[in-house]
Amino acid sequence: QRCVTDIIPPTMALSAVVFGCVLAVATALALAQTPFDIYKGGKPAEPLKMQQKDQLGDPIPTAWPIIFASEFKGGNISGYFAYDWTQKAQVIYHEAGSYECMHFYNVSGQCRLMFPPGSSHMYMYAPQAFPRALCCQDLALGTTPPNWMLESPYMFSGAYMINGYPSYAWSYADYAHFYFETMNPKGLPAQFTFDNITQQQWTFDLSTLDFAPQPSSVFDLPHDIDCSQPCASMLGGGYGRR
Q1: DSSP H helical ranges for the chain
Q2: Would you list the DSSP string of 84-109?
Q3: Checking phi first, is residue 173 left (phi over 0); if not, alpha (psi -120 to 50) or beta?
Q4: In whole angstroms, what is the distance from residue 42 CA to residue 49 CA?
Q5: Of the ranges 33-37, 90-94, 151-155, which one carries the lowest mean pLDDT score?
Q6: What band does 184 get if pLDDT is binned at 50, 70 and 90?
Q7: Neighbours of 124 (CB within 10 A)
Q8: From the CB of residue 205, how many other CB atoms can be counted at a distance below 10 Å?
């Protein structure tokens, strides 16, 4: 079997010297695995479809499972992503010291980006902020739909090995961001990179992937603090995303 030649954006710090041959071997080994054996939450609530091809023969991104959660790591960040399209809700936990919390919100402790059920806004909640917890309204941005990649302009960017999984990549958002999904099991989130900033690279730990429904309380805003004030005006100093 011949090796795969990758199409690799020059801005991405990923090596592909020997990837082609490694990919062929790793894919063959992965095919022998029962796709969902490693996931603690069992099979997804909605069956995943195999990657399709576009007119050029390039893979087309796969829609997300309608419910899933996973830990992620990368750069100096670690966190947890929970998603439930049946509730139109998602939440992103960023651990203390993460780039997201410090760069955008001047928070050194943990922060959460919250998309409450049915809301058209994103909120930032920092339960460990000093001297008191903070919660504010940020971008006018609702929960990401499962087929978000198919609704965005994107470009196929090649094949990579991500955290031990052969994965496809696409660029989007003016082709400055990259999204990776696994080849086998088919179409699971593998990694995000944002503006080629290492501190904002999320690599999903698929051993923690869970398809079980999350309690609605996971996505609810705190009830003991006002979250209605815009982050930009609450935090000042140019912080907040808008």
Answers
A1: 19-31, 99-105, 231-235
A2: ETTTTEEEEEE-TT-HHHHHHH--SS
A3: left
A4: 16
A5: 33-37
A6: confident
A7: 28
A8: 13
> CB of 202 within 8 A of CB of 93?
no
Q: What are the phi and psi torsion angles at 56 (to 5°)?
A: -90, 0
* Residue found under tokens 């990694």: 191
Radius of gyration (Cα) for the chain, nearest Å? 19
CB of 98 closer than 8 Å to CB of 106:
no
Distances (CA, A) of 236 to 109, 135, 231: 18, 14, 8
**Segment among 19-23, 148-152, 199-203 with least mean pLDDT:** 19-23
Show Cβ contacts of residue 117 under 8 Å, excluding neighbours closer than 6 positions. 87, 88, 89, 216, 219, 220
Whether this prediction's pTM lies above 0.90 is answered by no
Q: What's the rounded Cα separation, in Å, for the pair 223 and 188? A: 34
